[in-house]
Amino acid sequence: MSDYHTLGGTLRKLWPGEVDAFKDHLLRLDADARRLRFCGLVRDQFIEDYCATAQRLGTVIYGYFIDGVPVAVGEMRALYDSQPSEAEVALTVEKDYRDLGIGTALMSRIIRSARNRHVRRLHMICLVENIRMQQIARKHKAQLRHMQGTTVGELDPPYPTPLSLWLENVDDNSGYVSAAIDAL
Ligand SMILES: CC(C)(COP(=O)(O)OP(=O)(O)OC[C@H]1O[C@@H](n2cnc3c(N)ncnc32)[C@H](O)[C@@H]1OP(=O)(O)O)[C@@H](O)C(=O)NCCC(=O)NCCS
Question: In order of start, what are the domains of the chain with their CATH numbers?
């Protein structure tokens, strides 16, 4: 497999002002990718409404940016009223950038963010045919089970450590700089 590092992009968090870039990324997905992402066909309006909730508390979004444009996104959304805290993870990588390890890298960042926020369980849901997503989940030690045409994955992030907190902080600092450069 080729490696996304040769693309020269940047993996960083999306900041609140970048919701439109997130929305544009999802709108660029073709019908099949939208179906895989949302487990069903969705129209543009659905994506617009979905992105309007992207700044809710408990949401963390990472993107892989090329020339300031996110071509891949990993999202963690907290599941409300869960005690202890649980969250859902979803990934999208635009067609030309798949099978380069970007989805795997986004998943690792999301798991670290979940860990650092004391999320005790991460859920992933995808269609049974979605081999790539299942492979990524398996590589991160998720337990998978098949249910009525979908595959449900669950993994329990470890507790945070000073190192895991520090590493996210370091990435955030370089991410701010990249975001500022992208905004120029
Ligand atoms: C699922 C998705 C995010 C994966 O992103 P990606 O960047 O291509 O993923 P990666 O390159 O990190 O990993 C893909 C893995 O699938 C494997 N894979 C790809 N095609 C495969 C196939 N036909 N059979 C078995 N494994 C396959 C790759 O070898 C790789 O595994 P490896 O790293 O162990 O070799 C991307 O395909 C996507 O956006 N799909 C549409 C939206 C979607 O399905 N989202 C998930 C909803 S939760």
Answer: 4-183 (3.40.630.30)
pTM metric for this prediction:
0.96
Please tell me the residue having the least CA distance from ligand 1 atom 31: 135
- Name the E strands within 67-168: 69-79, 86-93, 121-127, 143-147, 150-155
Q: Could you tell me the two tokens for 105?
A: 């890298």
List, in order, residues 6 or more apart from 117 with CB less than 8 Å away.
58, 60, 85, 87
From 99, 111, 134, 152, mutation site for ligand 1 pocket: most ligand atoms within 8 A of C-beta? 99
Q: Does ligand 1 have an atom closer than 6 angstroms to the CB of 136?
A: yes
Residue 104 beta carbon below 6 angstroms from any ligand 1 atom: yes
Residue in this structure with the two tokens 């090329």, named with its chain if needed: 66
The model's pLDDT over 141-159, given as tens digits with 9 standing for 90+, comes to 999 999 999 999 999 999 9
Identify any residues that bridge with 65 across adjacent strands, giving them in sequence order.
10, 70
Atom of ligand 1 nearest to the CA of 100: 11
- In the sheet that 10-13 helps form, which strands lie side by side, from edge to edge? 10-13, 59-66, 69-79, 86-93, 121-127, 150-155, 143-147
